[in-house]
Design brief:
heterodimer, A: about 450 residues, Beta-Lactamase, 3 domains, 7 helices, 12 strands, about 50% helix, rod-shaped, B: about 220 residues, alpha/beta, Rossmann fold, five-stranded parallel β-sheet, 8 helices, globular
């Protein structure tokens, strides 16, 4: 990056400078030509005025050197355009130019000259003044050189300054790079770059906030894994203890009871694992959410049908009031999981012989599914916690994974719906209200 | 030995109660921290098996408050929390042992016996009184090298008296140590057990202090 920047900067700077030099060369040449042409014409006019008709040869050698360029000038005076009456010492005997009017160019003794020809008023006397072209080029070149020279001197200095400045600016980038490279994957510490430029500072800030979010996610996962291990240990401990009780049972009744305990423990561990997997599949990066119109009546009937045997085993009554024909916009598979969890919870936490009611009502935009049980309910101050993974309200007797309402909450969120827990209108039991949109947003 | 199991999980609590009963303990089981606190204050348990995540009153709070009141009963924490910090917090909170679920019932029983032994200042795993040797782990009794077959209650009675050697235990105290809650107790049950015990191991081990109770005199320690 440093080399790239340097190359680009130096290339652009020198190109710009050279173009400027070239332009000024052309411009200088043009201006010099104008000035020297005028000078040439003026010289010719002066010679013409000074011509008295009887001169012989002007000692140009002795003419005062007015300027270092002046010696590259020569002239001729032709009478009637044919007789060379006067010329500078360096001038040939032949006409300086065949063109006898105004400006022309000619080659004399291998070098190029600019010639100005002029006639006196009666067209009797022709004066030709020539000046070497080199002169003009040298002048223009000098102007251009004056342009290029500072560049040649300053370019290396400029390069060095850019190199150092870019290096200094990039030091914070290098610093960030080293800190990121040396980072442990789960490190929570922010990157610290002293005197970072604004742009790098923004990068560092964003990186740090990303690290923080990743850290939170890792922490969440760690917590979940820990909770999961914790939740599985108790059923495993129960299975082991029940199995040992069966081994040491004094009679068949005790043995059978213990073995039933083993099976119940396995079922519970399986349920917990199932719920964990369901929840894992609902993780933002893993969930497959394919919403479409879902008939609540059909889905609820299926869910209730699946759980009916469990309810019957507890001599409980589970029923659906209305709901046919009400469609919501959602994912049928996920909604089935949602309802199964709600109804399973209601059955699980209700005493035998009570009823679980599932009802549906709908407005233009939303539908509500209301599941009411006659269980112990959830105290108002605990309701905020039930969405937490593995949270179980204190005193909960019925076996459960503590994940059911986490799953429900997650699916409700995916559907942009709401979940509300209330005391049932009878004053006993829990009423869960899930509100789902009926149309795609 | 009366032990109190404090475990809110029904399946595990039941298995622990049954399993420890099979292993010669007289376990009582509660699922709630407050109930546990009440039980600990009124019953002379030899040891407590305590879960940490409890409804009502968390296990650690219960333990701390009981220790603060001067309750010296040996407490074994049985929990799913396996982090080192949890163990440290548990032990520093007043627990005598810390076991992570799942556990072997035999190991749990052995740890409880060890806790009880130490709490009685009796580090030897077998109890001796003259030529009578009681092995609580094997639940065996020998007299002059002869193995004696005792009924569970008779064994527990002898064990309790020997663990409390030199201390007179009243009939009520012995009943509390012998019988779990809800177990039916005949009015003269202790006398009957003592009678049977004496017949099996000889009459000079368990002394009757008339009107007070029974005692195994400490002086006869071998």
């Amino acid at each position: 990056m440093r080399r790239q920047l340097l190359t680009v900067l130096l290339t652009v700077v020198s190109a710009a400078w050279f173009i400027a030099a070239a332009l000024s060369f052309v411009d200088a040449r043009h201006e010099v030509s104008e000035v020297l042409d005028a000078h040439l014409a003026q010289t010719a006019a002066l010679i013409m005025v000074q011509w008295d008709g009887d001169g012989d040869e002007i000692e140009t050698e002795h003419a005062p050197v007015l300027h270092r360029y002046s010696r590259r000038v020569m002239f001729q005076v032709w009478e009637d355009g044919e007789v060379l009456r006067l010329h500078s010492q360096n001038a040939p005997n032949t006409p300086l130019s065949r063109v006898r009017q105004r400006f022309s160019e000619t080659t004399i003794a291998g070098s190029r000259w600019r010639v100005f020809s002029t006639w006196n008023a009666r067209d009797r006397v022709l004066v030709q003044v020539a000046e070497q072209f080199n002169e003009r080029d040298e002048l223009a070149t000098a102007v251009a050189r004056n342009f290029v020279l500072p560049l040649v001197i300053t370019l290396p200095i400029l390069g060095a300054v850019i190199w150092i400045a870019v290096g200094r600016a990039l030091r914070s980038v290098t610093d960030v790079n080293q800190q990121v490279a040396a980072r442990a994957a789960d490190s929570a510490s922010p990157i610290d770059v002293a005197d970072a430029p604004v742009e790098i500072g923004a990068l560092v800030t964003n990186l740090n906030s990303l690290f923080e979010r990743v850290q939170q996610l890792i922490e969440q996962e760690r917590q979940f894994t820990g909770d999961a291990a914790h939740e599985l240990r108790t059923p495993l401990a129960a299975i082991r203890a029940q199995a040992q009780v069966a081994q040491g049972a004094a009679d068949d009744a005790e043995r059978i009871r213990a073995l039933n305990g083993v099976i119940a423990g396995c079922d519970r561990a399986t349920h917990t694992v199932d719920q964990m997997l369901t929840l894992a599949r609902l993780e933002p990066d893993a969930v497959s959410f394919h919403p479409g119109p879902v008939d609540l009546g059909v889905t609820l009937k299926e869910s209730i049908g699946e759980l009916a045997p469990v309810a019957l085993a507890k001599t409980m009554d589970v029923g659906l009031t209305n709901g046919s024909g009400v469609t919501v916009f959602g994912d049928a598979g996920l909604l089935a999981i949602l309802f199964r969890n709600l109804i399973d919870n209601a059955i699980r936490y209700s005493p035998p012989g009570t009823a679980v009611d599932v009802a549906v009502d709908a407005t233009e935009s939303h539908a509500r599914v209301i599941v009411t049980d006659a269980g112990p309910g959830i105290p108002a101050d605990q309701r905020g916690n039930v969405g937490r993974r593995f949270y179980r309200a204190p005193g909960t007797q019925a076996p459960g994974s503590g994940l059911g309402l986490s799953i429900v909450q997650r699916i409700v969120d995916l559907h942009r719906g709401t979940l509300q827990l209330d005391t049932a209108s009878t004053g006993i039991g829990l009423q869960v209200v899930v509100r789902l949109p009926r149309v795609a947003e | 030995m009366r032990v109190l199991i404090v475990e809110d999980d029904p399946l595990l609590g039941e298995a622990l109660a049954t399993g420890l009963k099979q292993r010669g303990f007289a376990p009582d089981w509660v699922q709630d921290g407050r109930e546990a606190q009440t039980a600990m204050r009124v019953e002379p348990f030899a040891a407590i098996v305590l879960d940490l995540g409890l409804p009502g009153l968390a296990g650690l709070e219960l333990l701390r408050s009981e220790r603060a009141r001067g309750n010296k009963v040996p407490v074994l924490i049985l929990t799913a929390r396996d982090a080192v910090q949890d163990r440290i917090t548990g032990l520093d909170g007043g627990a005598d042992d810390y076991v992570v679920k799942p556990t072997d019932l035999n190991e749990l029983a052995a740890r409880l016996r060890a806790l009880v032994r130490r709490s009685k200042g009796e580090p030897a795993p077998v109890l001796r009184m003259g030529n009578v040797i009681v092995d609580p782990a094997a639940r065996s009794v020998t007299v002059e090298g002869r193995s004696i077959d005792l009924q569970p209650k008779e064994f527990t009675l002898l064990q309790e008296l020997m663990l409390n050697a030199g201390r007179v235990l009243s009939r009520e105290q012995l009943e509390e140590r012998l019988y779990r809650w809800g177990e039916e107790v005949e009015s003269n049950a202790v006398e009957v057990h003592v009678h049977h015990l004496r017949r099996k191991i000889g009459s000079n081990v368990v002394k009757t202090i008339r009107g007070v109770g029974y005692v195994v005199p400490r002086g006869e320690h071998a």
